[in-house]
Structure formats: structure tokens, C-alpha cells
Amino acid sequence: MSEWTTAGLWLAVIASGIYHGVSPGMGWPLAVSAGLFAGRAGDLFRALGLLAMGHFAAMIGILLPFGAMLALIVWERQIRIAAGLIVIAAGIYLLFNRRHPRVLARIPPAQLALWSFAAATAHGAGLMLVPIYLGLCQAADLDAGHQAAAALVTGNLITATAVSVVHTAAMIVSGGVIAIAVYRWLGPKFISQSWFNLDIVWAVSLILVGGIGIASIEYAR
């Protein structure tokens, strides 16, 4: 894999994190609410930390199984195609079914980490990272003839963790900046007056990422 390709994939990890962070559906309005309700900025930052924990758990929970599967070098191409099709299917489903899962409304507001995990999972946030992650773990770049399967799995799992950390950091920084701005200067009316619905954009982006992931397989060979 060329250095330019690797840099592009890591930029995609960061960009998707910023995209998730900006989206109100990933929870930054809840952090604003926590800060305003308690009247302390510390509660806002605590809420952001819990949201980050839940989001990271959702990302790593999706990526780790794919990291283990990549040990099967002979099936690497099929795994990447299947992952791309899953992401596309998730995008099509969300495009026609834009109702938010009822389970999110049943999670107590105090359990922000659990809510963040459920929201990221339900909206397919982790799935969006899968094609990017698989590109970073291309088996063609590994000397399979001289590496044990355990070493291969370890490398892929480390990459999965790194992708999840970088993505979550970008997500919480971007969402946190908006939350702080709303809490200190803009006020809660900004959310209702200035924000727009990202549901359709989210669904289309899943379809695009899945399609790009599949199209990139032949390019990388």
C-alpha cells in the first residue's frame, strides 16, 4: 500500500469521526443538556467523556471481529466484499426507515455511555469504519509466508484499536466544540433554529462508503 493511500485512509477515519461528532444523533446535545441542568461546565465534560466511552465501545466491537477474520488470508477479498455489501445494505435500510430506534428512548439519561454505544450501533456508525479499516489491513501488504497467524491477528487488532481511538477522538473533539459553544455562547435555541436533519445524509454516506470500499479492492490488487 502506498503512503498516499495509507494517509488517505487515516484521513477518512478522522473525517468520519468529525462527521459523527457534528451529528446531533451521536449525543452532543445531551452533553449540553447535562451542563445546563447542573449549571456546571464540569458536568458537560463528564457527559462528553461518557459519550466517548460508549462510542469507542461501539467502534471496537464492530472492528475486532473483522480483525480476527483477516487472519484467513485466502478469504481476504471475500471478507472485504461482504463488509462493503453489509454497509450498503445498512445505508439502504436507514434511507427508507428513518425512525430512531425505540430502545434509545428507554435508556435513562444518566446512562450516557450505554446510550452512546446503542446510538452508534443502531445508526451504523461502526459499520462506516469497516471498509476503511479493511483497507488499512490489506493482506497483500503482509508477508503471509513468514508470519504466524497469531502475529497477523495481533497486528490487525492493534490497527482496529488505533482506528477506534483516532475516530472517537475526532468525534468527541468536534462534537465537544459544538457543545461548548452552545453551552457558553449560542444557547439551546441554536439547536432547533440552526440545525438540519442528517438522517438522509447519514444513510447515503453509508452507501457511498460501502461502494467505495468494494471498488477499491481491485485498485489495491
From TrEMBL:
It comes from the Bacteria. The chain crosses the membrane at residues 49-72, 79-96, 112-136, 148-180, 200-220. Keywords: Membrane, Transmembrane, Transmembrane helix. This is Uncharacterized protein. It comes from Rhizobium loti.
